[in-house]
C-alpha cells in the first residue's frame, strides 16, 4: 500500500461558504481531488470541546458524495484528557451521511501527553490498536459497501461538491 499524509495546516482552506464554488476556495479542490483518488481514507483529529477539529470539518464540508460515496474510511481521534469518543461519533455520523463506509475498528488515543513520547506511542496495546486501524483500512478498501445510509437522500448539501 502507499500512503499520503494530508496535513490540513499546509493548505489554504477558507471557512466553508455554500455560495462559493470549491474551485474558488483556496486549496479545497486539491484536498477533494486527493480524497477522490484514494482507495481508503483514515481521518484523524484532536478532540476539541467534545468534537473534532474545525479544519477537518471545513475540509469535509468542501467534499461530498463524489469524494466519499462508497469510500472506506477509518477514524482516529486523540485528546489530552479522557477518551475522545464523541469526536469519533461525530466523524462517523458525517462520513455515513456522505455514504462512506466507516470501518468498525477505530482508534482513540487518550491522554496524549503520557501516551506519546518523541512521536512514538509508548503503550504497546495502544500502538497495536492504531496499527490495526491502518491494516483494517487496507483490508476493507476492496469490500463493496452496502447499504446507503437513510440520511443520504436528504443530504442535498453534499451533491455537486
Automatic annotation (TrEMBL):
Pfam family, one: FMN_red
Gene3D superfamilies: 3.40.50.360
Cofactor: [4Fe-4S] cluster
GO molecular function: FMN binding; oxidoreductase activity
GO CC annotations on file: cytosol
Record domain NADPH-dependent FMN reductase-like: where: 1-110
Family assignment from sequence similarity: Belongs to the SsuE family. Isf subfamily.
PANTHER family noted in UniProt: CHROMATE REDUCTASE, NAD(P)H-DEPENDENT FMN REDUCTASE LOT6
Name of protein: NADPH-dependent FMN reductase
Native organism: Halobiforma nitratireducens JCM 10879
Amino acid at each position: 500500500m502507499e500512503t499520503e499524509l494530508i496535513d490540513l495546516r499546509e493548505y489554504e482552506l477558507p471557512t466553508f461558504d455554500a455560495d462559493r464554488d470549491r474551485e474558488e476556495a483556496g486549496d479545497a479542490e486539491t484536498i477533494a481531488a486527493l480524497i477522490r483518488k484514494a482507495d481508503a481514507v483514515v481521518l484523524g483529529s484532536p478532540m476539541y470541546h467534545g468534537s473534532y477539529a474545525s479544519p477537518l470539518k471545513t475540509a469535509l464540508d468542501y467534499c461530498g458524495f463524489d469524494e466519499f460515496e462508497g469510500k472506506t474510511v477509518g477514524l482516529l481521534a486523540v485528546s489530552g484528557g479522557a477518551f475522545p469518543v464523541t469526536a469519533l461519533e461525530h466523524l462517523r455520523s458525517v462520513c455515513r451521511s456522505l455514504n462512506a463506509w466507516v470501518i468498525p475498528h477505530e482508534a482513540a488515543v487518550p491522554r496524549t501527553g503520557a501516551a506519546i513520547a518523541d512521536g512514538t506511542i509508548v503503550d504497546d496495546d495502544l500502538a497495536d490498536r492504531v496499527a490495526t486501524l491502518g491494516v483494517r483500512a487496507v483490508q476493507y478498501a476492496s469490500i463493496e459497501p452496502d447499504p446507503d445510509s437513510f440520511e443520504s437522500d436528504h443530504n442535498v448539501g453534499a451533491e455537486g461538491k
